[in-house]
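We treat protein structure as text, and this decision shapes the records that our systems exchange. This encoding replaces a full spatial description with a residue-level series of whole-number codes. Below, we set out a record of this kind in full and without editing:
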Amino acid sequence: MKKIFSEENKLQKMLDVESALASALAKTGNIPKKEAEKILKKANTKYVKINRVKKIESEIKHDIMAMVKALTEASNSGYVHFGATSYDIVDTATALQLKDAIKIMEKDLSELKKSLLKLAKKHKGTIMLGRTHGQSAVPITFGLKLSVFATEIGRHIERLNEVKKRILVGKMMGAVGTGASFGKNALKIQSLVMKNLGLNTPEAVTQILQRDRHTEFVCLMGNISCSLEKFATEIRNLQRTEINEVAESFGKKQVGSSTMAHKKNPVTSEKICGLARIIRGFVGPCFESSILWHERDLTNSSSERFILPHVCVLTDEILQDMKNVFDNLAVYPENMMRNLEKSDRIMAESVMIALTKKGMNRQKAHELVRKCSMRKGVFKNILLREKEIRKLLSEKEINDALKPEKYIGCSEKIVENCMKEKI
């Protein structure tokens, strides 16, 4: 991912655009074919050196014109950049970078989903305590929890695929989007350039592509980062000493603390949470960069040089980190059962349902079980002593209602259904 946004690769993408432009201009008769061939032959960082571009830029203070001058020197053609404006090149080159970046993102997301489903399948029947508001709720399976995560990643895969038609778009319509500099062949030239580069053609532009496209992409990266922080936070919470139901892998020589020798901290999950916040931090500036004067100003340029590379690199990083966490996660079913047994009140809903099935009014059953759950003592014994409950439920039926393994609903079936989904 870093290579995609390196200075060398950025320069090559811009040269690729200049090459595609020259080819289109020759096909439409706007420039001589021989001139286009000269440009195509030299539009490569093998001939157009980044150091030369930087030297020219230091003198003329314009990065794109520096590239144009360097390519003109290398190709000895007077038709480099003919009819184009700087952001015809920049925006189209950026789309090429994002095209490569999205391929990596798609692979990252797909592999993470596979890891989650693999773990979900293994633990589809592993019963654990469900929690709401940070409090004991009712039983769940660890496999169901992971399936929820996997389907969330699946939606991100769908979103990324769906936005490509709006993100992977270039432009080649000159100074203010009229195409006047290309003459009567302007629309054809733009279409030929985009087809050559494998990009979509915009309906209408100004000097630049409108930044709602880039904002949508950055927002999607922010959305993905939210999911990853949520997953990582779950790992961190379940690894708490007093819960200890799962844990990140910990190497034989790994150190958890410079002073507390016993520490095994969920450092990768914590790293994911920290970087996810940085990713979302770029969303605001990206929105601000969408608001430009008239056909464009330059306020978006400086911020986007930070936003797009950093968002892509950091999202790629935490996607891979999250996969590694789940691939190597230690799961402790015995501790899950221990925590379930410590929280006997979690079966209150099950008892209420059992009473309702025997004919008691649902609201009455709820209030009766609520009062029982508020009393001190072993929950089962409290229920056995309650006359209204004993009128309807035998001791065996109460015992059955208090068994967590009998109150996981369709958890295993849901996991199995998720396994059938196409990744």
The longest strand covers residues 135-141. Residues 7-82 form a domain with the Fumarase C; Chain B, domain 1 fold (CATH 1.10.275.10). The CA atoms of residues 9 and 347 lie 60 Å apart. The chain has a mean pLDDT of 96.
